[in-house]
Amino acid sequence: MVSTSPSRSVRVVASVTASRLILPLCLLLAVGTSAHLTTATAPVGTAGAAKRAVAPPGVTPVGPYSPGILVGDFLYVSGQGARDREGKLLTAIEGQVRQAFENVKTVVEAAGLTMEHVVYSQVYVDNMAHYDVMERLWKEFFPKSPPARAVLGVYKLPTDTPIEINAVAFRDLSRKRLVLPAGYPSTLSWTPGVMAGNRLYLSGFFGSDVSTNRIPDDPDAQVQLAFDNMKQTLAAAGMDFRHVAFVNPYLTEQASTQMNAIYAKHFEFGNTPGRATIRVTSLPRGNTIEFTGVAVADL
Question: Which residue has better confidence, 299 or 143?
Answer without folding.
Answer: 143
